[in-house]
TrEMBL record:
InterPro entries: ATPase_NBD, Carb_kinase_FGGY, D-XK_euk, FGGY_C, FGGY_N
Source organism phylogeny: Eukaryota, Metazoa, Chordata, Craniata, Vertebrata
All copies of domain Carbohydrate kinase FGGY N-terminal, residue ranges: 167-314
Protein role: Phosphorylates D-xylulose to produce D-xylulose 5-phosphate, a molecule that may play an important role in the regulation of glucose metabolism and lipogenesis.
Residues covered by the Carbohydrate kinase FGGY C-terminal domain: 327-510
EC number: 2.7.1.17
Keyword terms, alphabetized: ATP-binding, Carbohydrate metabolism, Kinase, Nucleotide-binding, Transferase, Xylose metabolism
Enzyme category, top tier: transferase
Name of the molecule in the record: Xylulose kinase
GO MF annotations, alphabetized: ATP binding; D-xylulokinase activity
GO CC annotations on file: cytosol
Family (UniProt): Belongs to the FGGY kinase family.
Reaction(s) the record says it catalyses: D-xylulose + ATP = D-xylulose 5-phosphate + ADP + H(+)
GO BP of this protein: D-xylose metabolic process; xylulose metabolic process
Amino acid sequence: ELLTYGPFKNVQSLGRQHGPRRSTACHRVVDSMAAATDPCYLGFDFSTQQLKVIAVDEHLNVFHQNNVQFDSELPEYRTQGGVHIHSDRLTATSPVLMWVKALDSILEKMKNAGFDFSGVKALSGSGQQHGSVYWKTGACQVLKNLDPERHLHELLQGSFAVADSPVWMDSSTTEQCHNLQMAVGGAQRLADITGSRAYERFTGNQIAKISKTKPEHYQQTERISLVSSFACSLFLGNYADVDYSDGSGMNLMNIFTKQWAQQCLSATAPQLEGKLGTPVPSMAVLGPVSAYYVSRYGFPVDCKVVAFTGDNPGSLAGMRLQEGDIAVSLGTSDTVFLWIQDPKPTVEGHIFCNPVDCQAYMALICFKNGSLTRERIRNECAGGSWEVFSKALTSVPMGNHGNIGIYFDAMEITPPIVGVHRFNEENNKVAGFSEEVEIRALVEGQFLAKRVHAEKLGYKIIPGTRVLATGGASSNKDILQVLSDVFSAPVYTIDTANSACLGCAYRATHGVVAEKGVCFAEAIRKAPEAKLAVTPTPGADKVFEPLLKRYAELEDRVLKESLQ
């Protein structure tokens, strides 16, 4: 489960190591600060290991970036990787006040660097998904009356009923997951309502555990926030509501009505609805920034606070996905982001409300067997050389003469299968392939799996569909050609460094004009475009349409055999 969010948790290093460098405004950090009168927008990201901020000007050029590393810059909290792993090796938490102090630190850093806050027209942000914060009764009054002469972490010291917040790495709530699914009629029924089956890290199951194991702390709780809405509350000087998109990762919200699901609330904890507030659109302006920031840092009194969201939805905004697009991160694990209009929840993957279009949805699927499997086949069949690997890949025609391979070195997440399974054109199992056919079977098989499972969740290729590729293998054009052919769509390469943070700066820009009916794509039309890498080989669709059906049938066959 930790791998589900892996490729987008450390996007900065991933982009720098492997992503193609582009001379675009997105990556051109202007040294001089914007003039005081120039409007700008801020995007924050409260991620697992650090707090980051990006400032963009009205042309969407990045002109300031900053960060606070939790472990090294706030050592008093004694975190490792931003978290505390407890003795049971299942419970994972982070100190809430560490996040608060990080905000103090990053704003001071910006101020010391000469950043002029008077031009900030709007701000938004994201938080690591699923984590929860428990505000103590009376905390709202504290938020509304912050003393600008003092630091936030001093002012809010006594404001939390639970000092250590459960985070996405926690896997201690198996019992609560079982109870929730039983209460609503099973895993598929829960997915039909909330977009996902019960997951240990999802917020509802964490709330259920705290209600049961720390009833006095739960009773003292006035409001429960996600990490995103908690961070938004700090800027708003009031409790910020949970947005639709991040709210989809709780196992508590009906993703179709965008309201709390009463069945789920009742099965989770008593008096829960009153502690959650009301879900709001992800592009909603929740109010002006708190007077605390106006007095202490010089923010304008009319600076707008746009609802914060989760880091994965923030990344969708940063990657500028549009209807019909799919983003594929080719890393240690391969992660697929989808923009979909007609979702079909399953017990595999996740459906969230779309953070930039209230009428649409996004999906997330993780495949554990990514680059490590590609590297093993490269070592075994190409002498460890990517050049030899590419030559072998292109020496076999697309479709691989009807040969199909399923390569799951480790137990896969989607679907839960392990082992290598090879089939010839008659669908008979075979012991092995030639080196060239093996390489082609691996690459085609991995991309066939991605399209098969994307379509199971409701994804449809439409005119104008783009595949956005990132991660280590996105620098290999021959691999990208297979990706393009399997999806019958052009492949573009993108650098996802700080994509959630950048996406929230874009979302702040959009939030200012969203109420006038301006769509996200129109609001950020000046932002840099992805770079076209390859287009589908003529005739690819006719080759891969029958292979997609065969792959799905063979994967189902292997799954059934594994369960016998």
